[in-house]
Write a structure and sequence with these properties.
Number of domains: 2
Number of helices: 6
Strand content: under 5%
């Protein structure tokens, strides 16, 4: 079968300029919406990691990815999003480690619970000191 030059050139044509302009406008609209989104750093840095720990604790792993997207959407920058993601995974590891320790040593609940809560208290104290030093300088 022989293709004529007219049919070959029809398949090689570029899209109409109006369509390209519409695609560019749509892309710019998305960029504008991303730039205009409301920043919520406390939700990104505190609520999302807590929700991720709750989702992991109830074995609902499918919720972790949308929570990561929510943290990215609400974070004012990449650093805040990275801190939220790290806090989520550290919190999940802390929860899994604590529950595993409690089930491994059921007769030492007081010691295990004290160590488990002590690590969270130490992280909170270290975070508070870090914030005070950052605000002082």
């Amino acid at each position: 079968m022989h293709l004529g030059s007219a049919s070959a050139s029809a398949h090689l044509r570029r899209p109409a300029p109006s369509r390209r302009l519409a695609d560019i406008r749509q892309l710019l609209g998305l960029k504008r919406r991303l730039a205009a989104r409301r920043r919520r750093p406390l939700l990104a840095a505190i609520a999302v990691p807590l929700a991720a720990v709750a989702a992991a604790g109830t074995v609902q792993w499918f919720a972790v990815l949308p929570l990561g997207f929510a943290a990215w959407w609400w974070a004012p920058g990449f650093t805040t999003w990275l801190i939220a993601a790290e806090a989520s995974w550290v919190g999940i590891a802390w929860a899994i480690g604590g529950t595993a320790a409690l089930s491994a040593w059921p007769r030492a609940r007081l010691a295990v619970g004290s160590l488990w809560i002590g690590t969270a208290a130490a992280w909170a104290a270290g975070s508070a000191l870090s914030r005070q030093n950052a605000l002082a300088h």
